[in-house]
Amino acid sequence: MALTTFNLPDLGEGLAEATVIEWLVAEGDEVARDAPIVEVDTAKAAVEIPSPVSGRVVTLHAADGETVAVGAPLISFEGEDQAGIVGTVPPEEKPRRRVRLQNPKQ
Amino acid sequence: MSERSMQQALNEALAEALAEDPRVLVFGEDVGRHGGVFRVTDDLQRRFGEQRVFDTPLGEAGIVGLAVGLCMQGWRPVVEIQFDGFVFPAFNQIATQISKLRTRTLGAFGLPLTIRVPSYGGIKGPEHHSESVETFVAHLPGIKVVSPSNPAEAQTLLGEAVRDPDPVVFLEPKSRYWARDDSMPSPVGEYASRVVREGADVTLFAWGATVDRCLQSAEFAAEDGVDVQVVDLRWLKPLDVDGISTAAGKTRRAVVVHEAPVTLGLGAELSAVLMERCFGDLLAPVVRVAAPDTPYPSAGLEDEYLPSVDRILLGIQSALDG
After folding, report:
1. Cα separation, B37 vs B7, whole angstroms
2. B200: how many CB neighbours lie within 10 A of its CB?
3. What are the residues facing A76 on neighbouring strands?
4. Is B34 designated active site?
5. Is B277 exposed, middle or buried (0-12, 13-18, 19+ CB in 10 A)?
6. Which member of B34, B128, B129, B139 is catalytic?
7. Is B146 helix (H, G, I), strand (E, B) or coil?
8. Which domains does chain A carry?
9. Helix, strand or coil for residue A42?
10. What is the pTM of this model?
11. What is the average pLDDT score of chain B?
């Protein structure tokens, strides 16, 4: 299991912070990737942020009404290990063998 | 120590290096804001700032060239080449600048830089994402090459690489990034190999991702009454010639296992070293278990290409038979 912390992104308007209007998930919830997790107010608009990963919510780093700086931790998830941009995580399983050794000492 | 992955261990090693030495810089493709495609640089930019941990354009020649220049100005760059197959666009810098600068300047400029390369196969990656480049870099004078096999080793060796006065290419076994264990730092000295499993009948020499496969093979061999020793080379340049010779001299039979193609893979060098050092002791020719001389295949054939437990066991059998 891996812990992933998602920082508040720059929501595209060059703003330095946003205020949490309402969390749409609670700590302990299982969320799917791209499901809406929070509604924030950027002073220009109310924006809904989708979940960047699938996983279980471990920590909400701000309460409703609290202001978060861009780049500061917003939410932490626990979930399965994610591979890099390519490839897969190899399974940790004991390999099977077909070859048997003939020990000349015996 | 609790269990952790190699990703986490490398992340801790980079954080330690950044905290210890203000000259250390971390840069490469996606290593800053994104935290690296394998999360190895996760959160480092937030912790240490955009001046010390930063993203570069997608261009390996530029990344390594920048590292050379910064190094000459007193910085200690630790750069990431995102995947092994993209070492080659930077190879001109590595071969013509990094390899030669200390000698060319009669010692006036050393290059204490580290090039981290997620390496080898085993993740069913696409073309150019599963290469073993150790021979290419280890062949160059003036460059050191090291490859860890578990989390504790990764942390120790990356620390040593960053502090080293010479350029170090650090090959990270990407198929082992996620495997967790509670391994402890090994007590062996700098540039030393380590015996990870004692045995009396045959010695397997491995590094990076193949160490774990060799340990699994050794367990199977034990079921058949064959006592296999496993040596993790750790440093591929300089090779721990004394440690290697001692280990092979003890069992008098040796097998080298690597993911790179067999022709002129590092197994050829090891075999030559053992010929020079242990010829009189060896009871059988040194066996190489490696990839065939073909380009790295697509994902569906990867398991046939990489040294499997069965192929390693056949190698052991060959060494036993002489």
Report:
1. 11
2. 12
3. A5, A59
4. no
5. middle
6. B129
7. strand
8. 2-79 (2.40.50.100)
9. coil
10. 0.84
11. 96
In DSSP terms, B197 is beta-bridged to B230
What CA–CA distance (Å, rounded) separates A83 from B196?
Answer: 28
B103-157 per-position pLDDT tens digit: 999 999 999 999 999 999 999 999 999 999 999 999 999 999 999 999 999 999 9
ipTM: 0.82
pLDDT of residue A106: 62
Whose CA is closest to B80, among B140, B175, B7, B23?
Answer: B7
Do the Cβ atoms of B118 and B131 come closer than 8 Å? Answer: no
Q: Hunting for tokens 């020719």 — which residue is that?
A: B285
| Helix, strand, coil % over all residues of chain A, rounded to 5 | 0, 40, 60
Which of B10, B17, B58, B64 lies closest to B38, judged by CA?
A: B10
Q: Which domains does chain B have, with CATH numbers?
A: 4-181 (3.40.50.970), 194-321 (3.40.50.920)
Q: Which two tokens stand for residue A102?
A: 């003939």
Contact between A95 and B308 using a beta-carbon 8 Å cutoff: yes
Among the partner residues A88, A100, A104, nearest to B123 by beta-carbon distance = A88
